[in-house]
């Protein structure tokens, strides 16, 4: 009788725990997409990483989507997050990567500017926190790599707003700004 009772108790416990566990697990039924997806005008197709659909919403693997749009995807081990950054550019500047946070940033890119000189500034949307210039190894029409290292004290960081990098050339005729490129560095809330 004791064995029968113990068996019933164990059986009920297993049934109850399986039911509770099944309620905790949420299932998603993804189906392979039957319609094409174009990225920058090209049809996306990848047998290893197909386009999926869930309840009318299209899912494409993040790395495949970002690379298809010429963006970079990386895992930030220190902050434990995925970071996606599109390349920002105009006819004179290309930003390849922005790394850092909380006032300390490293910006790498290439520039094609007259006499190999360009100016840059960091603003908080209201005030300029830093202005400087950079002399490159080559001037236009050549593209030359650059690295800008920025270090702002915590007291200058906005409590609520976005730090913006402004990169530009100054006109040889009248010192007006040319080929301006505005790049967000970090948003604070």
UniProtKB/TrEMBL annotation:
Keywords on record: Signal
Domain annotation Copper amine oxidase-like N-terminal: ranges: 39-89
Signal sequence bounds: 1-22
Entry superkingdom: Bacteria
InterPro entries in the record: Cu_amine_oxidase-like_N, Gmad2_Ig-like_dom
Domain Bacterial spore germination immunoglobulin-like, first and last residues per copy: 103-175
Name of the protein this chain belongs to: Gmad2 immunoglobulin-like domain-containing protein
Source organism per UniProt: Paenibacillus residui
